[in-house]
Prior knowledge:
Elements: E1 19-24, E2 27-32, H1 33-40, E3 45-47, E4 61-64, E5 69-75, E6 80-82
Amino acid sequence: MAMQGQYPLGNRTLANSDTVTGVVTGQTADIPLNVLAVFLSNTTQSGPTSSRPTPLAVGQSYFDTTLGFMVWCKQIIPVIWVNAAGVAV
């Protein structure tokens, strides 16, 4: 029997397409490892306004090179990006 924090996989290596299942406010969600890795990384994406990524989570940051400052995802559906003052940009 595996203990908490131990995940016996034998000789198998985790792939980007593998998922982690979590529970948030009583609902389960399967999160692809590649999505989780981007969210957990300390790397901020950057580029022009026209290339903003599809946000993975509220609070995701992006350095908008067209505007010259950081923006953050305030809402995912529909996507709303805001500046440091909370103004939609």
